[in-house]
Design a protein that fits this description.
Radius of gyration: 20 Å
Helix content: 10-25%
Number of strands: 8
Low-confidence stretches: 4-27
CATH architecture: Beta Barrel
Structural class: mainly beta
Order of helices and strands: HEEEEEEEE
Mean pLDDT: 83
Strand order of the largest sheet: 1-2-3-4-5-6-7-8
Oligomer: single chain
Number of domains: 1
CATH topology: Lipocalin
CATH class: Mainly Beta
Shape: globular
Strand content: 35-45%
Number of helices: 1
Amino acid sequence: MKNPLPRLLSFKILGVATGLALALPAAAESTAADVVGRWQWKPTSGSCTEIHEYFADGRLITHSGDEILESRYVIAQAPQGPGLFRVVSTTTGSNGKPDCLGKLTPIGNTATVYLRFNNAGWFYTCAGANSMSCYGSAAPAPK
């Protein structure tokens, strides 16, 4: 006869994990206004950090390496669910210096990114609505 202990333990662990998940508080609902502020962005891999400062009037200032960009952005709730926002930004000005990867961003460059907020006060940056496409995260930047 097989030992039933491993199977009983796995059900017990599953039950405890399920109970813990149900006990965790629900995420606070984010709004588009939550992006306004100064954020320190870090990639999932690599060491290139940036500062992104979103203003309520739709301006975005980005510091990456020696590059300083001015952009205009539009943010909207993504239809895929709460806490997920689609941001489209267009570069309107540059100091003409390279970013932290040594590249220049041309004026008129348009970028789309998805922001997925969490309860810890920061957000993931993703290439698409799928969380598997996330490539970095941003937390409130030190002053």
